[in-house]
Amino acid sequence: MRGSVKLLLMVAAVVVVALGLWFLTPRGGDTATSAHAQDGSPSAADAGPAQNGTSGEGMGAQGGTQAQGGTQAQGGTQAQGGTQAQGGTQAQGGTQAKSRANQHEPNQQKPVPVFAAAAEASNVPIVVRGIGSVAAFNSVAVKSRVDGNIVGVAFNEGQFVHAGDLLIQLDPRPYQAQLAQTVATEAKDAANLANARLDLARYAALLPQQLAVTRQQYDTQRALVAQLEAQVKTDQAQVDTAKLNLEYASIRSPIDGVTGLRLVDIGNLVQAGAGTSLVVVTQIKPIGLIFTVPERNLTDIREQMARHPLPVLAFNGDDNKQVASGNLSVISNQVDQSTGTITLKAVFPNQDATLWPGEFVNAHLVLEVVENGVTVPAAAVQMGPSGSFVYAIKPDATVEPRPVTVTQVEADAALIGKGLKAGDKVVVSGQADLAPGFKVAVQQGAPGQMNAQEPEIGPEGVGSTGINTAAAGAGGINPR
User: Fold this and answer.
1) Residue 66 CB neighbour total at 10 angstroms
2) CATH architecture of structural domain 172-248
3) Residues of the chain with pLDDT > 70: what percent?
4) Domain extents for the chain?
5) 25 close to 54: Cβ distance less than 8 angstroms
């Protein structure tokens, strides 16, 4: 019984010692068995204990030598957490091969194919953009001032008319008759007035002798003359009214402009003061443009407007074609707080009738013109942690990131305030593959141009490469 207890105690002690050694054994990179073997050189740990103080307990041969927590050789040498050699030696978690490191050195890097452009010097306008609509200076809904039937329409829809041109003719006969009646009444009252004036003259001659006329008769005759004079004036006013009504029977254009759609036809009865319009005439020469710009530009606009007239260029809805030019005329007296914009109005001569009322256009307000400004394609400007920069190409065909200040970007051209001078070459496409000091191979053509001229059969089927690259082999890039 005692012998069995002693045996169990000895086994327990051995287990405790073995566990202690296992916990104290170094792991990972502390095992040294020629861990830095390069390019398939044989391992020095074919058999034997692990180096750097690693214990070799429980060593057994499995086609080689195995060290627990140290080196294991299976048809070669394997260092766990260090160097592994299977049919040779391979470094894992250690030093990389020199051939891979050399691929990242700029001096041995193949040129990167890019597209480039030279910075140019030209006169560049500083533009403030806005969106607005064309507004007519005058638009008149023509209505009748008298009642009558329409007997004639003297215009075509969409016709250019001048002020005073006949548009619609109402039946004039009732007004002609009314005019004749008032003229006759005026003539009758004028004759009575002439007779009363003769009688007044006779009374005035007889009044001093007091023979046939008394003072009362004379005063009565003088009052009659005054009454008839007022009647004649009333008749004259009625004649003028009748003439005016007869003139109103001919409805004429009040302004120069373009007629709209005809809203009534011949034979319809129109009444004075009716809500229905006969036609709308709109003035288009000159014409206005009302647009809005951000309020942050208000100070610059006011300062420049005080110095000289500010040109305004009207572009079409796609903002790729100029259609008219005019001048800024009015700045609104308050900022729209809900949108943070200020409303402006420009006047255009519009002699060729390019602008049309209600049309939406893009307005380009020119504040000033920068002479000999340096410009580059907008695609050349990149954004980095420190701000805008471009990849400038040096004489040795290497690139360097150069910080720049961009004043504005207009029509795909960036105006550079500082950082470049005219003639400097910059990369406009291919920046994603660049780093400082990389060599580049400048390609001919424009970014986006496909250089594969014939269809090719690639992984996706028949078709061109679809990439911005030069001919096969140029710059180290080959089509699929």
Assistant:
1) 20
2) Orthogonal Bundle (1.10)
3) 73
4) 2-29+41-84, 172-248
5) yes
